[in-house]
């Protein structure tokens, strides 16, 4: 029993001897803390180095071999046929030159031979029995046309020039236009005007809420149509129906039957003032534009809304329709023009070239083009994709109206009473007019709000802020000698902004 007790006591003594003291435990703990702290510090330093030391904006180093291989693959893929054709043509040319008859096997630089087709060829390499020019009969000669050096220099000079020199089209001569009639009758600003298809009369609408019918030949009032409860902003006469469409600031779109002179339909849906109206030339469809930033497409007969063309972010100021795509074009105060797919009811593209509100559009009667007017510029566009053609700068005013006739005369009317007459093809302004307000009205009431040509294109009718309608015609006594074109072509190409 005593021996067992001693044996049991021995391991406990060894364990007591091997157990760490308090100081050792404290040192071990400090070592562990130091190691953990170093790990944290080094990890933080590594993150900092990864974030700030590496230049992420710099491109990686390009492997030249890989880059050349990639270029070679792209060349073969895209231009393989051209490369093979060029190689075949080069080989045929070399074979043809080797087959040339020769009486002398020793040539010196600068000698000239007659090549195929009578071309002069200069020999720049040596073939034959000289020590310096020793070679074999089958070697390929480096043969250049005698004018090669000059041609290279010409190419260098040509590369410094613009690839396409600006072409200034000489404007066509147009007779100047003159005022020949002033019609008074409205008691408010005249905001809209349109001519009927038989060219017998025209209609106008204004701030006095009345639509008036005027005789085109005499300028006398024939009829007044009342029904709108606010200013009439748009008037349009159909070419295929005895209908007159009107829209106003009372949000109403009315269809007038000209056989009974009564309103037969209302098109309800606009949430704000109607700004413009146009009808489709071949379909029984009416398109209206309003301050609610939409253009709405209506079925003439059933009064049902077919589409609500949404996408503009401000007032839609003008709308025009044509039979070919794009069938509907709208201009807005958000500085954009949109071309619409009438079948789908959505925008085909948006033209953002203008920097200010676009208030007027005009279709060319025969060309597949249209023009848009903004205070920054008048721009011409090509359908169907709205390709920009040219600027017509110089009319520095808020342009409310555009009109174009068959002779290529484009007229723009400004908010300050200024008118500009342009040659469509060249964009040359051949006449400038400043309208005079009616006696009794103030100078600020000289604005032009709407204009249209009659069906012959020989009479221009303008609706103005002095409550009058003015009519213009070409000066029959003018000739190219009495009124020459003052045309100075610009040396520098115009800015395309």
Automatic annotation (TrEMBL):
Keywords of this entry: Repeat, WD repeat
Q: Which SMART domains match?
A: WD40
For the region Disordered, give the residue spans: 7-30
Q: Mind telling me what this protein is named?
A: Pleiotropic regulator 1
Q: Which InterPro entries match?
A: Prp46/PLRG1-like, WD40/YVTN_repeat-like_dom_sf, WD40_PAC1, WD40_repeat_CS, WD40_repeat_dom_sf, WD40_rpt
Q: Which spans does this entry mark as compositional bias, Low complexity? A: 7-21
Its BP terms in the Gene Ontology are:
mRNA splicing, via spliceosome
Classification via PANTHER family: PLEIOTROPIC REGULATOR 1, WD40 REPEAT PROTEINPRL1/PRL2-RELATED
Which Pfam families would you find in this protein's record?
A: WD40
- Tell me if Repeat is a UniProt keyword of this record: yes
Describe the subunit structure.
Answer: Identified in the spliceosome C complex. Component of the PRP19-CDC5L splicing complex composed of a core complex comprising a homotetramer of PRPF19, CDC5L, PLRG1 and BCAS2, and at least three less stably associated proteins CTNNBL1, CWC15 and HSPA8. Interacts (via its WD40 repeat domain) directly with CDC5L (via its C-terminal); the interaction is required for mRNA splicing but not for spliceosome assembly. Component of the minor spliceosome, which splices U12-type introns. Within this complex, interacts with CRIPT. Also interacts directly in the complex with BCAS2 and PRPF19.
Tell me, in a sentence or two, what this protein's role is: Involved in pre-mRNA splicing as component of the spliceosome. Component of the PRP19-CDC5L complex that forms an integral part of the spliceosome and is required for activating pre-mRNA splicing. As a component of the minor spliceosome, involved in the splicing of U12-type introns in pre-mRNAs.
The WD repeats extend over: 183-224, 225-266, 267-308, 309-350, 392-432
GO CC aspect terms: catalytic step 2 spliceosome; precatalytic spliceosome; Prp19 complex
């Amino acid at each position: 029993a005593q021996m067992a007790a001693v044996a049991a006591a021995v391991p406990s003594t060894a364990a007591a001897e091997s157990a760490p003291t308090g100081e050792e435990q404290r040192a071990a703990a400090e070592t562990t803390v130091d190691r953990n702290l170093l790990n944290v510090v080094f990890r933080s330093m590594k993150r900092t180095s990864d974030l700030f030391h590496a230049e992420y904006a710099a491109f990686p180093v390009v492997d030249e071999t890989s880059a050349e291989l990639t270029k070679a693959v792209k060349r073969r893929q895209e231009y393989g046929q051209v490369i093979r054709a060029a190689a075949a043509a080069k080989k045929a040319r070399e074979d043809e030159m080797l087959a040339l008859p020769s009486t002398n096997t020793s040539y010196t630089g600068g000698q000239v031979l007659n090549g195929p087709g009578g071309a002069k060829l200069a020999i720049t390499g040596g073939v034959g029995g000289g020590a310096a020019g020793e070679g074999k009969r089958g070697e390929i000669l480096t043969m250049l046309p005698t004018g090669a050096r000059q041609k290279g220099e010409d190419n260098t000079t040509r590369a410094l020039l613009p690839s396409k020199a600006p072409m200034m089209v000489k404007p066509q001569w147009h007779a100047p236009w003159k005022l020949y009639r002033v019609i008074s009758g409205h008691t408010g600003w005249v905001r809209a005007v349109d001519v009927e298809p038989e060219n017998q009369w025209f209609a106008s609408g204004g701030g006095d809420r009345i639509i008036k019918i005027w005789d085109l030949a005499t300028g006398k009032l024939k009829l007044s149509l009342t029904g709108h409860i606010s200013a009439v902003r748009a008037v349009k006469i159909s070419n295929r129906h005895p209908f007159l469409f009107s829209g106003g600031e009372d949000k109403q779109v009315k269809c007038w039957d000209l056989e009974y002179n009564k309103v037969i339909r209302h098109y309800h849906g606009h949430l704000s003032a109607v700004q413009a109206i146009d009808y489709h030339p071949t379909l029984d469809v009416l398109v209206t534009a309003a301050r609610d930033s939409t253009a709405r497409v209506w079925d003439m007969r059933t009064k049902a809304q077919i589409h609500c063309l949404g996408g503009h972010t401000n007032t839609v100021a003008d709308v025009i329709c044509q039979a070919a795509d794009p069938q509907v074009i709208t201009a807005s105060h958000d500085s954009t023009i949109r071309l619409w797919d009438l079948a789908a009811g959505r925008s085909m593209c948006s033209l953002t070239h203008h920097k200010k509100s676009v208030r007027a559009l005009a279709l060319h009667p025969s060309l597949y083009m249209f023009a848009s007017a903004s205070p920054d510029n008048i721009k011409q566009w090509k359908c169907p994709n709205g390709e920009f053609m040219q600027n017509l700068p110089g009319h520095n005013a808020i342009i409310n109206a555009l009109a174009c006739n068959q002779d290529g005369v484009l007229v723009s009317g400004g908010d300050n009473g200024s008118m500009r007459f342009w040659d469509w093809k060249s964009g040359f302004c051949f006449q400038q007019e400043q309208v005079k307000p009616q006696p009794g009205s103030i100078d600020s009431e000289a604005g032009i709000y709407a204009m249209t040509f009659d069906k012959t294109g020989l009479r221009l009718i303008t609706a103005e802020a002095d409550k009058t309608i003015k009519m213009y015609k070409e000066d029959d006594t003018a000739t190219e000698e009495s009124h020459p074109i003052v045309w100075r072509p610009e040396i520098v190409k115009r800015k395309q902004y």
